[in-house]
Write a structure and sequence with these properties.
alpha/beta, Rossmann fold, Dihydrodipicolinate Reductase, domain 2, six-stranded mixed β-sheet
């Protein structure tokens, strides 16, 4: 399978490495707008020893010219911008897989853009798919799968606890780590900090369970260090922000049916993911912490072979054959 990628940041770089390792994929093109990456061999940008003979370009047109079967877009979290990037590729008959959080289930937020992307993909017999670890797996796809073991689902509660001390510096700072509480609280009130996609997870999970969300509310709690905690600059002093807790409550027919709690914080000792399915036969499942960056990269690459088997159009992880891993070949 011929694959090209746009966006060679932390996630895109891991995706590129996996594409090179897999016997069923061939990397044929790469794009990034960062001046320090453009013009270099992909191997130099993502940390591979052997040159690949593929130069990083600065225009998405290079993806079309590479004539891939599938283009991977790891460029933005916002669906309208991602759609602008994807539609020329779909028009050229190229499948698109993206890590864009809002693209995992965009129907409720951007119905018109969703319709346009779907109609183009159907007309060109291509597939557009948004995937990732969160949204796209941990707080929606996985809980929906767990719920399959229950005779009836009355309520779903998902808690994801992420130890930011073990994650990359950019993510730590994205969550406000090291900043003054007042500054982060102001950004939280404006909804321009933290995780993008909690409502996306709620709508995807509700759709899987056959529910129609009538209202939802998301709240932010700024977490402040009470003692020194490790981060990428050494030890964070007390009084500084160490992370965020985001909580989304979704109601169906006047009752709370979904509660999603995402806490990403420095120095978090009991990290992991928990799903509780309430009903006549309750179910609770816990998963030990996973590496979110590698998980997203792996999900993207493992989804590629399923995209080519999916029905044309804008699809979600619920529409494609179940995601599974790839066994070692040597």
């Amino acid at each position: 399978m011929r694959v090209a990628i746009a966006g060679l940041g932390p996630i895109g770089g891991l995706i590129a490495k996996l594409l090179v390792e897999r016997p069923d994929t061939t990397l044929v093109g790469a794009v990034d707008i960062a001046p320090d990456k453009v013009g270099k061999d992909v191997s130099k940008v993502v940390g591979l020893e052997k040159p690949l003979g593929i130069t990083v370009q600065d225009s998405l047109e290079a993806l079309r010219e590479a004539r891939p079967d599938v283009a991977i877009l790891a460029t933005t979290s916002r669906f309208p911008l991602l759609a602008d990037q994807a539609m020329p590729l779909l028009d050229a008959g190229i499948h698109v897989v993206t890590t864009c959080e809002e693209a995992v289930f965009p129907f409720h937020m951007y119905p018109e853009v969703t319709r346009e992307v779907n109609e183009l993909a159907v007309s060109t017999q291509t597939v557009f798919l948004g995937v990732g670890v969160n949204p796209g797996f941990m707080m929606d796809y996985w809980p929906a799968t767990v719920a399959a073991t229950a005779p009836r689902v009355d309520r779903v509660w998902v808690e994801r606890l992420v130890n930011l001390s073990a994650r990359r510096a950019r993510l730590q700072e994205k969550l406000g780590a090291g900043q003054e509480p007042a500054a982060v609280e102001a950004r939280a009130r404006e909804r321009n900090i933290g995780h993008v996609g909690l409502s996306t997870s709620a709508y995807l999970l509700a759709h899987a369970l056959g529910w129609e969300i009538e209202s939802w509310e998301e709240t932010y709690d700024v977490l402040v260090a009470e003692e020194p905690v490790p981060w990428h600059k050494g030890m964070l002093e007390p009084g500084k922000v160490k992370g965020l807790r985001q909580t989304l409550v979704a109601r169906v027919q006047g009752e709370e049916r979904i509660r999603l709690v995402l806490q990403m914080s420095l120095g978090l000792e009991h990290a992991g993911d928990t799903v509780k399915v309430e009903g006549p036969v309750p179910v609770q499942v816990h998963m030990a912490p996973i590496n979110g960056d590698w998980a997203t990269a792996s999900i993207v690459v493992n989804a590629l072979r399923r995209v080519r088997k999916a029905r044309p159009g804008l699809r979600t992880v619920l529409d494609i054959p179940p995601l599974v891993g790839t066994g070692a070949t040597g």
